[in-house]
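Worked example 2:
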Amino acid sequence: MVEELSPRQFVDLRDAGELWQLLDVREPWEIETASVAGCITIPMADIPARRNELDEHLPLAVLCHSGVRSARVAAYLAATGYERVANIAGGIDAWSLEIDATIPRY
């Protein structure tokens, strides 16, 4: 099962001490345009080959531009054994609006 978290809910969980991984599945040019510090960056197409770079025992939140690609990746990872997976609803666009207005919107 995949949870849906707003950027605020994710930050609140992390601030409360939960050890979440944050995976950004956007393309390199997108990450150069706008990014969240501390993300693991693996483009969506590379996830099957590189999923071993993620700890399947730690909660994992997936981020993209608007939440569509990240929802697909989150569902894939949940189906392949990751214990707790969340999609960041609204993606980095919502992150810019809710958490950090210095992150450019594109």
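The chain has one domain: 2-98. The first helix runs from residue 7 to 15.
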